[in-house]
Specification:
The structure is a homodimer.
Chain A: E1 4-7, H1 9-22, H2 27-42, H3 52-61, E2 72-77, E3 80-84, H4 90-108, E4 110-118, H5 125-132, E5 137-141, E6 163-167, E7 175-179, H6 186-195, E8 204-205, H7 215-220, E9 222-223, H8 228-241, E10 267-274, H9 276-280, H10 284-300, H11 308-320, E11 322-325, H12 326-337
Keywords (chains A, B): Oxidoreductase
Family (chains A, B): Belongs to the LDH2/MDH2 oxidoreductase family.
Protein name (chains A, B): Delta(1)-pyrroline-2-carboxylate/Delta(1)-piperideine-2-carboxylate reductase
C-alpha cells in the first residue's frame, strides 16, 4: 500500500471543514481554519499544514479554544483597529478585522491591527500575503508560549515569536517570508519527534540547560533563538509589540491547553500595514517596479529568494493535488468520522 | 606617554563642533552630527563614535555630503511625514522631522517617517531612543551600500541594513537595540583593519566568494548576514522598506564617496512610531509596567539585556569622561586645526 495519499485541494478542504464542524467548531471558524491549514499544505509548509487539525480538536477538547466566539472589532483611532478574538482562533478574528485594517492603511498610509485574546496555531504568511494581494506592505508578529531561552540564558522565557513580511509585486506573487525567531519552528521539533529522529545541534537545551539532540528533551527544555543575541533581541521586540503594546500577555504567562483544562493559550498578534500608494502617490508603480531589481539581484547569484519554493509548490499542488502521509490521512478521517471530542 | 586620552563630554562636543565647522559644515549640521557621535562615544559604541568625524570630513571633501542642505519636511498623510535631506546628513533631517512624527503618532496611534536622499553614517539607536524618551515605541531601519551577500550568494548585493528598536520603560532608560543584519557592522571590520587584526571566521567572503579572515579582503569582497537565511530575509525587508517603499534607492545603487567625486552615497531611512497611550488609553501605564516582567525574566537567568551595557557606559562617561586612543585624539585635533579639506 502506498505510504502517501494524494488529494485535490477541494477534497482536502472538505475533509478539514467536516472534521472541524464534527467536533463543534462553527462554520465561520471551520472555514477560517481550513483556509489557513489547506493553504499551508498546498504550499508544502508541512509544519503548519493539516496535521494541525489534530491539535485544533485536541485544544478544543482541552478547553483551549472557543469553537464559536464572535470576534469583536473595535475602531480605536484613525490608525488602529483592535479585535478581541474572545478566546477563539486568531484566524477568524483576522478575517473580520481585515477590511477595516485595509481601509485605515489606504486612508492614513499606515495602520495597525491589534488582535487580542486568541488561540493561535497558524502560519502568519497567509495573513500578510492576503494584505499584499490588496497592494499593501504588511508585517506581522505574535508571541507563543515560553519555549525559548534568551541569548546567554538557560531556561524558557520567550515564545518562538514568529515574524512575517509581505511585499506586493507588480507581476507576480508577493515576496513573503515568515520565520520563527527560534532556530526552527516548534512544529519542526514536533515532526522530528513523530518521525523518531534526533534534532540537529544548536536547536535546543534540555531542562538542565545543557545542549541536546533529543526532541523530547528539547520540548521539555528550551529552544534557542536564531542568530544568537540579535535573534534574541528581535524575539524580545516581538514579545513586547504583540504583547504589552497591544494590552496582551507575555509568552511566559501563557501555556498550552492541557488535560486538566488548566492551560491559558490565549495571546495577541500585531500586524502593521503600509500603503505604498498613499506614501508615494503617482510614483508608487515606478518604485514597486524598481524593487524588482533587488529580487533579480538575489536570483542572479543563485541565492535563495524567500517564498519562491512555496510558490512553486503552490503551482504544483493546484495542478496535481497535495500528497500527505497515509498515517496522517487515516488519522484525519478517523477524527472526521469519530465521536465528538 | 599614555596610549589614551580622557576628555569630558563637553570637551569632546566642542572638539567635534569645531572640527566640523572648520571644514564647512554649517552649525545646524555640526550640532546634529556632534550629538550623535558624542552619544555613541559616551555609550562606548566605538564603531559609531568620534572616529566617524574623520569620515564625515573626508566624505565632504569627496562631494558625498552637503554641508549646509536645509531638510525639507513634507506632510504626506495623517500617518506619514517625509523629509528630503537634500544630500545632507540624515541626522539634521531626522531632528527637523521629529516633532511632526511625534504629533502624528500621538494623534493617530501610528506614524511613519520617510527620510530621503541623505548621507547616513550614524547609529540608529540615538534616534529611536529619543522617540522612546517621548513615550513612544520606535523602529528604524536604513540600507547602506551593497557590502553584503544574500544567503546562498557570493557577491555583495545588500547593505549592512541595520535595524533599531526602542521601548519606553516606566522607571529607567528605554530598552533599545540596534544591530546590522550583516554578522557585524562594517565599522567593526574597519576597526580590525586599523588595528592590524584578522577578523573572525564567518564574517565575510573575499572578492572571489571564498571565506576570508583578512579585513582588507573582506572590505573588497562581501560580508555575510547574521543568522543565515533568516537574517538575509530581514535584510531584504529593510532594503525594501527603507528603499523603494519610501521612493528611495536600493543599496547596490548607492556607493561611498570617492576621490573622483563620483560616489552616490545618498539613500533613505524609515522610522515607524507607535503610541502605546493612543492604543491602550488609560490602560497604557499598566501594560508598560507589565512589560517589565520580561526584562526581569531576562536578567534573572543572567542573560543579556540589550542596551544595558550601553547605559552602564553612559553613567560611567558622565562621571568620568570618555577615553579614546591617543592616536585618534591627535588625528581629530590635527583635523580641527588643519587646512579646510
Amino acid at each position: 500500500m502506498d505510504k502517501t495519499v494524494t488529494l485535490s485541494l477541494g477534497a482536502l478542504e472538505t475533509l478539514s471543514r467536516e472534521l472541524l464542524t464534527r467536533h463543534g467548531f462553527d462554520e465561520a471558524h471551520a472555514d477560517a481554519i481550513t483556509r489557513s491549514v489547506v493553504a499551508a499544505q498546498r504550499d508544502e509548509c508541512h509544519s503548519h499544514g493539516v496535521y494541525r487539525l489534530i491539535d485544533c480538536v485536541e485544544t478544543l477538547r482541552r478547553g483551549g479554544v472557543s469553537p464559536d466566539a464572535t470576534p469583536y472589532v473595535l475602531d480605536v483611532s484613525p490608525g488602529i483597529v483592535r479585535v478581541d478574538a474572545g478566546q477563539g482562533c486568531s484566524l477568524l478574528a483576522f478575517e473580520r478585522a481585515r477590511p477595516a485594517l485595509i481601509d485605515k492603511a489606504r486612508e492614513h498610509g499606515v495602520a495597525l491591527l491589534a488582535l487580542n485574546n486568541a488561540f493561535h496555531f497558524s502560519a502568519l504568511w497567509p495573513e500578510v500575503e492576503s494584505l499584499a494581494d490588496a497592494g499593501l506592505v504588511a508585517l506581522a508578529m505574535t508571541p507563543s508560549h515560553a519555549f525559548v531561552a534568551p541569548a546567554g540564558g538557560q531556561r524558557p522565557l520567550l515564545g518562538t515569536n514568529p515574524i512575517a513580511f509581505s511585499w506586493p509585486r507588480p507581476d507576480g506573487m508577493p515576496f513573503t517570508f515568515d520565520f520563527a525567531t527560534s532556530v526552527v519552528a516548534r512544529g519542526e521539533i514536533e515532526l522530528h519527534r513523530r518521525a523518531g529522529d534526533t534534532i540537529p545541534e544548536g536547536w535546543a537545551l534540555d531542562a538542565q540547560g545543557r545542549a541536546t539532540l533529543d526532541p523530547d528533551a528539547a520540548l521539555n527544555g528550551a529552544m534557542l533563538t536564531f542568530g544568537g543575541y540579535k535573534g534574541s533581541a528581535l524575539s524580545i521586540m516581538i514579545e513586547l509589540l504583540a504583547g504589552p503594546l497591544i494590552g496582551d500577555l507575555l509568552g511566559h504567562e501563557t501555556s498550552p491547553a492541557n488535560e486538566e483544562r488548566a492551560g491559558r493559550p490565549w495571546h495577541g498578534e500585531l500586524i502593521v500595514v503600509i500603503d505604498p500608494h498613499r506614501l508615494l502617490g503617482d510614483e508608487a508603480a515606478r518604485h514597486l517596479q524598481h524593487a524588482e531589481a533587488l529580487f533579480a539581484g538575489v536570483l542572479e547569484q543563485g541565492a535563495r529568494l524567500p517564498s519562491r519554493r512555496r510558490h512553486e509548490a503552490r503551482r504544483r499542488s493546484r495542478e496535481q493535488g497535495v500528497t500527505i502521509p497515509r498515517g496522517l490521512y487515516q488519522e484525519l478521517v478517523r477524527l472526521r468520522d469519530g465521536a465528538r471530542g
